[in-house]
């Protein structure tokens, strides 16, 4: 078997691409490459690791590398397999390679390459045709849940399906799923034991019906290559050289497949950037990229840091974000160097409320379009899709065309349509609806109606489809609150009319328009002007990012957003949700020390007084992160921070001490004529009873014990903790 026998081993590409005879001058391929890109292109032997920052021309470098090897006669086109993560990226790579005279090279996604191999070898290994590929697994997951007598709504179904996919790419079997969730600190959408049951039933039904899913394509290919050394040798004889793009996004399963493709050879080139790892919730991990040099000690390492996309001003902001990062990925961050002429400075804007932020953003976009920036070269990026509605409305009101990427328009979403129908029915027949008997004001009516559709006063934990649905419904509740504030006499019927008018105004077809997208959906894209909006604590980082690594991934997500901009970058936040609301929000911690008037994290300076809500919030010295004293996780919930442990971690509270503290607190409250919680809250007393401080320093580190309370109550509390009797206690007994 030689590389030249490719056509007899695997089917031809569907597009029929053939190897184009290379031009005589291989060096011509190197023209126009910068020194680092040239180093990548000429490193054709042994393992190569390319750390490529945003906008540094990584695709150019690796396609020229392959083409140079082909033209120089070092690589046979059919012996090269280039893998990436999306069909779009693979198609772009194939197109560039054809232009460079290397059209016979295979450029595919992991799944596409594995599926072709599986289809080819299945008859030989198992016999018969490959089982039918399940295009959508949701229906089978739903049936599996029903057989387990577990009821899932549409959004829970999507989330559980995502959990099954995560389990499979991390090579976790159903029985091990609950333990894997606990170990990874993953927020499961349901009880992990229930999901494990559904997962097991799902696998059983697939076997019974002889179908496989997309993850099985990788798993079965891995199984065949592990069990059949003759087939593994055949594939290794075919593919001599591997290139992997976006290597920071590989899952453990994809890494295992890659290792089996390679065998004991080391002709591999990987390209990635740990600072752009934003898909860990799907199983992606940068560990394989960061450990590459450990696995391949002889590897050639090349860093691409010349940024050809963004101006020095945008690059400076991006570098500043990463300079504050922590963790292993941050240790390998790349300091980008812009190759473009200077441009405008980043614009930081603080708004009073969300509608003002959306309207201000729309005005600035309208001005840019008027100044000659094409609408298609402008993007508004936000953390979650539910944030889009207010920007859809503001752009529509400003007469600016827009298009949504990666999500339906707000009023076209299933949950919003269902909610609209329910509100319309309540407006028409509300007099006969017992649901509305005890509510009088418009927002309460809306909450009551939407509670039947999944809205609750508290958001569901974690991310996923259930959370997305809740955010959409919560946006309707907020819209009702804003509407009645502007029109106090408005009825439910008036609100329904308003919703219909908004929906109609935003349904106008657009061809060339401003892109509205989530930060995740923006990965791999770029625009002349980018508006990053809603940058407040609780949204960036998102409220359910609790561990250090989850918070750092949120920082990387913002970094990805910043590096999408070529020329104009605007960052904004609103101090309150609605007009006239309490200005209690703070701009994201990730901009501290970067935006004008703010101090770097953990410092105080002259800028603190003028640096916005985050810096105006208090005069006390800012503490570092509060860690759970049981498991070490960073705590963000106020109650957990008081206890200095996760709610689910075991408590070692001294019950007798807790009761003595409560009795003492009751006496103090009576003497002061104040409620007991004004002395210390229950959570603070629990934290004291759990940690049993021995001195002022230990007591002061407990959340809820400030300097004033330490001075006033510290001696008593420490005496009680030491088991001493307080003066006057004997007289009362």
From TrEMBL:
<keyword id="KW-0378">Hydrolase</keyword>
<protein>
    <recommendedName>
        <fullName>ATP-dependent DNA helicase UvrD2</fullName>
        <ecNumber>5.6.2.4</ecNumber>
    </recommendedName>
</protein>
<feature type="domain" description="HRDC">
    <location>
        <begin position="651"/>
        <end position="731"/>
    </location>
</feature>
<dbReference type="InterPro" id="IPR027417">
    <property type="entry name" value="P-loop_NTPase"/>
</dbReference>
<keyword id="KW-0238">DNA-binding</keyword>
<dbReference type="Pfam" id="PF13361">
    <property type="entry name" value="UvrD_C"/>
</dbReference>
<dbReference type="GO" id="GO:0005524">
    <property type="term" value="F:ATP binding"/>
</dbReference>
<keyword id="KW-0067">ATP-binding</keyword>
<dbReference type="InterPro" id="IPR014017">
    <property type="entry name" value="DNA_helicase_UvrD-like_C"/>
</dbReference>
<dbReference type="GO" id="GO:0016887">
    <property type="term" value="F:ATP hydrolysis activity"/>
</dbReference>
<dbReference type="InterPro" id="IPR013986">
    <property type="entry name" value="DExx_box_DNA_helicase_dom_sf"/>
</dbReference>
<feature type="region of interest" description="Disordered">
    <location>
        <begin position="1"/>
        <end position="22"/>
    </location>
</feature>
<feature type="domain" description="UvrD-like helicase ATP-binding">
    <location>
        <begin position="31"/>
        <end position="311"/>
    </location>
</feature>
<dbReference type="GO" id="GO:0003677">
    <property type="term" value="F:DNA binding"/>
</dbReference>
<dbReference type="GO" id="GO:0000725">
    <property type="term" value="P:recombinational repair"/>
</dbReference>
<feature type="domain" description="UvrD-like helicase C-terminal">
    <location>
        <begin position="312"/>
        <end position="567"/>
    </location>
</feature>
<dbReference type="InterPro" id="IPR002121">
    <property type="entry name" value="HRDC_dom"/>
</dbReference>
<comment type="similarity">
    <text>Belongs to the helicase family. UvrD subfamily.</text>
</comment>
<dbReference type="InterPro" id="IPR044876">
    <property type="entry name" value="HRDC_dom_sf"/>
</dbReference>
<feature type="region of interest" description="Disordered">
    <location>
        <begin position="580"/>
        <end position="619"/>
    </location>
</feature>
<keyword id="KW-0234">DNA repair</keyword>
<keyword id="KW-0227">DNA damage</keyword>
<dbReference type="InterPro" id="IPR000212">
    <property type="entry name" value="DNA_helicase_UvrD/REP"/>
</dbReference>
<feature type="binding site">
    <location>
        <begin position="52"/>
        <end position="59"/>
    </location>
    <ligand>
        <name>ATP</name>
    </ligand>
</feature>
<keyword id="KW-0347">Helicase</keyword>
<keyword id="KW-0413">Isomerase</keyword>
<dbReference type="InterPro" id="IPR014016">
    <property type="entry name" value="UvrD-like_ATP-bd"/>
</dbReference>
<dbReference type="GO" id="GO:0033202">
    <property type="term" value="C:DNA helicase complex"/>
</dbReference>
<dbReference type="GO" id="GO:0043138">
    <property type="term" value="F:3'-5' DNA helicase activity"/>
</dbReference>
<dbReference type="GO" id="GO:0005829">
    <property type="term" value="C:cytosol"/>
</dbReference>
<dbReference type="Pfam" id="PF00580">
    <property type="entry name" value="UvrD-helicase"/>
</dbReference>
<dbReference type="Pfam" id="PF00570">
    <property type="entry name" value="HRDC"/>
</dbReference>
<keyword id="KW-0547">Nucleotide-binding</keyword>
<feature type="compositionally biased region" description="Polar residues">
    <location>
        <begin position="1"/>
        <end position="10"/>
    </location>
</feature>
<dbReference type="InterPro" id="IPR010997">
    <property type="entry name" value="HRDC-like_sf"/>
</dbReference>
């Amino acid at each position: 078997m030689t590389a030249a026998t490719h056509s007899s081993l695997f089917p031809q590409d569907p597009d029929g691409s053939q190897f184009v005879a290379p031009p005589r001058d291989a060096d011509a391929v190197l023209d126009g490459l910068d020194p680092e890109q040239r180093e990548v292109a000429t490193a054709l032997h042994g393992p190569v690791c390319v750390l490529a920052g945003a906008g540094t021309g990584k695709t150019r470098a690796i396609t020229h590398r392959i083409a140079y090897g082909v033209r120089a006669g070092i690589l046979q086109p059919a012996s090269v397999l280039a893998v990436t993560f999306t069909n779009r990226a693979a198609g772009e790579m194939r197109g560039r390679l054809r232009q460079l005279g290397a059209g016979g090279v295979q450029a595919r996604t992991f799944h596409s390459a594995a599926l072709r191999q599986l289809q080819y070898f299945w008859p030989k290994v198992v016999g018969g045709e490959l089982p039918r590929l399940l295009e959508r697994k949701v229906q089978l997951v739903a049936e599996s849940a029903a057989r387990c007598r577990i009821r899932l709504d549409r959004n829970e179904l999507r989330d559980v399906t995502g959990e099954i996919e995560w389990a499979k790419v991390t090579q976790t079997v159903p029985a091990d799923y609950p333990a894997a969730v606990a170990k990874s600190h993953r927020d499961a959408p349901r009880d992990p034991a229930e999901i494990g049951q559904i997962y097991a039933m799902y696998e059983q039904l697939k076997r019974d019906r002889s179908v496989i899913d997309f993850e099985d394509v990788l798993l079965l290919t891995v199984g065949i290559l592990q069990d059949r050394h003759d087939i593994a040798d055949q594939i290794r004889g075919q593919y001599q050289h591997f290139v992997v793009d976006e290597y920071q996004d590989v899952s453990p399963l994809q890494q295992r497949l890659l290792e089996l493709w390679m065998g004991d050879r080391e002709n591999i080139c990987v390209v990635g950037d740990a600072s752009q790892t934003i898909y860990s919730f799907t199983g992606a991990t940068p560990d394989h990229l960061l450990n590459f040099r450990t696995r391949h000690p002889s590897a050639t390492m090349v860093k691409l840091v010349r940024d050809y996309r963004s101006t020095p001003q945008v690059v400076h902001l991006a570098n500043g974000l990463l300079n504050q990062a922590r963790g292993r990925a941050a240790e390998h961050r790349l300091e980008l160097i812009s190759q473009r002429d200077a441009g405008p400075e980043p614009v930081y804007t603080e708004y009073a409320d969300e509608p003002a932020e959306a309207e201000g953003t729309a005005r600035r976009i309208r001005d840019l379009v008027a100044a000659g920036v094409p609408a298609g070269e402008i993007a508004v990026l936000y953390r979650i899709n539910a944030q889009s509605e207010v920007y859809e409305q503001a752009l529509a009101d400003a007469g600016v065309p827009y298009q949504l990427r990666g999500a339906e328009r707000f009023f076209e979403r299933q949950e919003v349509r269902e909610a609209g129908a329910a509100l319309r029915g309540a407006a028409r027949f509300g007099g006969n609806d017992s649901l509305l008997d005890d509510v009088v004001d418009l927002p309460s009516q809306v909450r009551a109606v939407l509670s039947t559709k999944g809205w609750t006063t508290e958001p569901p934990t974690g991310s996923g489809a259930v959370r997305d649905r809740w955010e959409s419904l919560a946006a309707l509740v907020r819209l009702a609150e804003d509407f009645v504030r502007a029109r106090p006499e408005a009825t439910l019927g008036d609100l329904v009319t308003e919703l219909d008018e908004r929906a109609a105004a935003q349904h106008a077809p657009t061809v060339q328009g401003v892109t509205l997208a989530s930060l995740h959906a923006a990965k791999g894209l770029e625009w002349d002007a980018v508006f990053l909006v809603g940058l407040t604590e609780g949204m960036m980082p998102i409220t359910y990012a609790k561990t250090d690594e989850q918070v750092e991934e949120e920082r990387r997500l913002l970094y990805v957003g910043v590096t999408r901009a070529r020329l104009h970058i605007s960052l904004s936040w609103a101090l309150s949700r609605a007009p006239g609301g309490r200005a209690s929000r703070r701009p994201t911690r990730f901009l501290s020390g970067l935006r004008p008037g703010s101090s770097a994290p953990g410092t105080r300076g002259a800028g603190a007084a003028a640096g916005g809500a985050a810096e105006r919030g208090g005069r006390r010295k800012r503490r570092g992160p509060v860690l759970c004293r049981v498991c070490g996780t960073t705590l963000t919930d106020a109650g957990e921070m008081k206890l200095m442990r996760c709610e689910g971690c075991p408590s070692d509270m001294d019950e007798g001490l807790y009761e003595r503290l409560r009795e003492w607190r009751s006496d103090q409250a009576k003497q002061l004529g104040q409620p007991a919680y004004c002395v210390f809250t229950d959570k603070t007393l629990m934290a004291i009873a759990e940690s049993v401080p021995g001195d002022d320093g230990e007591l002061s580190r407990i959340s809820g014990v400030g300097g004033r309370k330490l001075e006033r109550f510290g001696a008593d509390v420490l005496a009680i903790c030491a088991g001493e009797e307080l003066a006057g206690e004997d007289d009362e007994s």
